[in-house]
Predict the 3D structure of the following.
Amino acid sequence: MTMKRKSKAKHSSKPRSRRHAQVDDPPALDFDILIAGGGMVGASLAAALAPLALKIAVVEAVRFGSCGQPSYDDRITAVSWGSRRIFEGIGLWPQIAPQATAIHCIHISDRGHMGMTRLHAAELGVEALGYVVPNRVIGSALSEFLAGQKHIALLAPAKIEAVQMQSHGICSTLECETKKIITSRLLVAADGANSKIREQLDIDTRVWDYGQSAVICNVSVERPQEHTAFERFTSDGPLALLPMGEDRYALVWTVDSARLGGILAMGDMEFLQAAANGFNGRLGRFTKAGKRQAYPLSLVRARSQMKDRVVVVGNAAHSLHPIAGQGFNLSLRDIAALADTLAEITAAGGELGDAHRLGAYIQMRRRDQTGTTLFTDMLTRVFTNPLALVGCARNLGLLGLELFPPARHRLARLNMGINGRQPRLARGLGINDGTGRTAWEAHAPSAISDTGHRLA
Ligand SMILES: Cc1cc2nc3c(=O)[nH]c(=O)nc-3n(C[C@H](O)[C@H](O)[C@H](O)COP(=O)(O)OP(=O)(O)OC[C@H]3O[C@@H](n4cnc5c(N)ncnc54)[C@H](O)[C@@H]3O)c2cc1C
């Protein structure tokens, strides 16, 4: 694993300078909040803020629904139980639920060793540990939802090219068919792991290259196990199988980047055989393979998630290895807490860029972010390490989890994203929009739960 520190922007003094209007500048559009990036995290934040009486703009470089959209691509996301609750709080779950496959059990094992454990939703008294949802489904639910909000403007395709601080707000320059200037009280950078805004603001960022890639591919298997996800550690790298209904699974195979070319070059039959070998016939033969795609993996951490009137969220703030399926879930908890904070500021008639309150939000999220990042990084190191001694410890750990239910339940709760302090949206309260109504009442009275129970 190699570690890089992102070089400081050459134009480090620029963001602080006041931008003077140029003669040929178009008149500025004005918003309360500008969200840069309408990917899974930026668009979810806009949806969470919808009940507030704020003018919001979401600027997205690639049009929603286009096949080149990098956030809503062919990936499948394991959405945790906690994230379902947040989507429910926003009023989006009814649009997502019909195409979500519940995970009732997660089976974790190490190929060729005795160590294994199973996490069961029933043991935790919940309907599911999480859900398997195609990113495209999340994308279309979000774009439809946002299109129905009069005070949220979706500007796509458009790119934020430059941001400059002013005394009472931020001035952002957009590159679309014509140049546009947007002023706002707050800018949220949700523009992904290679965030241009983070770079412009000269926010120190650490990047650890794992030297690995995730190969994703949808497969069909001969003997599916309904609603069961598999996490399998093998000498060829960890394999995850996420159930998608009937005999279909989403496969995520983490491989050393040096082996990537060989895996992508395999014919379908050879690839299916190699993946099936990892499971020792537990699911029978792997019978069909979809398109294979690879994602290089690194851990990205911004040293600071706030500067002046800018808050950094999602992959721009922290991008994790997908081994534990936590990246988006963690970010959704962040944006639910940020929505709480912005709702409180608005209800109190405060300033959206209030450094004190935004600082409190960052402080509140630190524990979950650090814990989830360390947990994911530790899993990556332990489960991709070929040393026999590490393998031994790994197996003892898995056996210990199987034999000691409290430890297993703790791991399951971590996976479900329900450890620690939960934002209002995750508690089913809706954000405080100052009307005394919950987001559910404001948006989706039917969204309380598709199973009929109200989530406490
Ligand atoms: C293989 C793989 C599997 C994963 N599986 C899971 C999982 O099971 N569970 C989970 O929780 N997480 C998972 N993740 C992580 C998850 O995908 C990310 O956490 C999530 O995509 C982050 O979303 P984002 O909106 O922050 O960033 P992105 O998805 O990168 O979106 C950023 C958006 O900003 C736009 N943009 C960029 N620059 C600009 C600009 N200058 N102006 C305007 N717009 C701009 C881009 O077009 C893009 O739409 C996985 C990741 C990978 C790679």
